[in-house]
Specification:
FAD/NAD-bd_sf, FAD-dep_OxRdtase_2_FAD-bd, binds flavin-adenine dinucleotide, FAD/NAD(P)-binding domain, 11 helices, six-stranded mixed sheet, about 450 residues, Flavocytochrome C3, Chain A, domain 1
Length: about 450
């Protein structure tokens, strides 16, 4: 069969593209490398997404206007964001929640349960996994043909009809023909060799917070065949995670959030600090790279009983001891250096913390956890992939993390990842369908 649209990757970008293309009248095949039980890409781990709105809605309070959104985006990414894609993102964010709801996603009323107040973001009911299950159910109902365990390994331009894609499940490969292709295969952050090339020694102890399938094969394949790279392969969103978690796909629950209440030491027991990290949620992204720079990419958060009382529940229990000396032994630290670090911290604790005195003392071992890399391929306003020579194919599109660096060259805003992938995925699906239906 000749497909109108073949979508590579079944994360939030791929599902949004597939649903939008199918709703616009195209026949759609979706290839997902993961097995069905692990489908959904990194949005499985997501909590919330960012949206512009002029007045309160049943899923987000207050207002968050376009200028504020744009200012905040510029604030984190600085120069280098593509202005028209940034505008398309913000405009598209205004309608993405009703579009997701129309495709079966349920959103949580704001401020209920344990959810924090947020006027910038909406929270899918049941989390990202429930959202992705709903989108998969809708795609299947609309007639999108979904193949799991199906990794696209080659993409060849074929004049007419368009493209051939080789998709493999273990040793069995299939050749698929398509009039257009939308690449939604995510970034390259899950390939340890690729990370080592670009992050050097820091990659050795790095944990990959997301799916192991976003291995950059499609990104590399497109760049090797002439697509224009954007961004910096050696920068990423990196946050502290519990060193005892899985190397890959640990998700959001292994993130360490209590650093503002305690002291951080490296594996020799010496104090590690980030002067401007503060206690805002943005402190995570400042601590991640700092831990990556520590010996063996390992550091320890030290809290006392009062710090622990303020800490959010954690996936792994802390390592505890009744005294500094016992904790140093439990963590394998130099007791003298560690005692000196605690004394120095207690003499002038940061404004968000108190001296570490009340037993039991507690520690979390931490490693840098990579969320994504600020690197991808260039696209134009129609989501068509732009070649390094400035040309583009009419029928090759990309959306989601694979092109995020067009908008976000560095830094991050909470909830931007899902919004970006959903908004641009939807747009790519509509544009691909427009191409095939004339
Ligand atoms: C732990 C964690 C928590 C997060 N929390 C949030 C949050 O709360 N809010 C937010 O907005 N963002 C969050 N993000 C970021 C957000 O999840 C991502 O930006 C977004 O999900 C990216 O979607 P995507 O579809 O573009 O790519 P991905 O989610 O990476 O999906 C790519 C898909 O393509 C598949 N694939 C890869 N290669 C191939 C191939 N060759 N053939 C076939 N399939 C392939 C993969 O299996 C995967 O399913 C979080 C990310 C992580 C890791």
């Amino acid at each position: 069969m000749l497909w109108d649209v073949t979508v590579i990757g079944g994360g939030i970008a791929g599902l949004s593209a597939a649903i939008a293309a199918r709703r616009s009248g195209a026949s759609v095949r979706l290839l997902e490398a993961a097995p069905q039980s692990l489908r959904g890409g990194n949005a499985r781990h997501g909590r919330n997404f960012r949206l512009m709105h002029a007045s309160p809605l049943c899923y987000v309070p207050d207002r968050y206007d376009a200028n504020e959104f744009l200012d905040e985006l510029h604030g984190v990414t600085g120069a280098g964001t593509d202005p028209s894609l940034a505008q398309l993102l913000i405009d598209g964010s205004e309608t993405i929640a009703p579009w997701l709801i129309g495709n079966g996603v349920h959103l949580q009323p704001p401020g209920t349960g344990v959810m924090p107040y947020s006027r910038r973001t909406a929270f899918p009911l049941g989390g990202g996994k429930a959202m992705m299950n709903a989108l998969y159910a809708t795609a299947a109902k609309l007639g999108v043909v979904i193949s799991y365990d199906s990794e696209a390994r080659a993409l060849v331009r074929k004049g007419r009809p368009g493209w051939t894609i080789e998709a493999c499940s273990n040793a069995t490969c299939e050749t698929i023909e398509a009039r257009s292709v939308i690449a939604c295969a995510g970034g390259a952050g899950a390939d340890p060799d690729w990370l080592r090339t670009h992050f050097g020694i820091a990659a050795e102890g790095m944990m990959i917070r997301g799916v192991p399938y976003a291995n950059g094969r499609i990104l590399t394949l497109l760049i090797d065949s002439g697509a224009c790279p954007v961004g910096d392969p050696a920068t990423g969103h990196i946050v502290p995670v519990d060193a005892r978690g899985p190397r890959m796909d640990g998700g959001i629950v292994t993130r360490i959030t209590a650093i503002p209440y305690g002291l951080v030491v490296d594996r020799s027991g010496r104090r590690v600090d980030v002067t401007d990290a503060g206690a805002q949620p943005t402190h995570y992204a400042k601590w991640g790279p700092r831990i990556a720079a520590c010996a063996d990419q390992l550091a320890f958060l030290i809290l006392d009983a009062r710090g622990m009382a303020r800490a959010a529940p954690s996936a792994f229990p802390p390592i505890t001891a009744q005294s500094r000396a016992d904790l140093a032994v439990a963590l394998g630290l130099d007791p003298v250096a560690f005692a000196g670090s605690v004394d120095g911290f207690n003499a002038v604790p940061p404004p968000s913390a108190r001296p570490i005195v009340a037993p039991p003392l507690a520690a979390y071992p931490m490693r840098p956890g990579l969320t994504f890399v600020h690197y991808g391929i260039k696209v134009d306003d129609t989501m068509r992939v732009v070649q390094a020579d400035g040309s583009r194919h009419d029928n090759l599109f990309a959306a989601g993390m694979i092109m995020t660096a067009n908008v976000l060259r560095r830094g991050y805003l909470a909830g931007l990842g899902i919004t970006l992938s959903a908004v641009f995925g939807r747009r790519a699906g509509e544009e691909a369908a427009r191409y095939v239906t004339g």
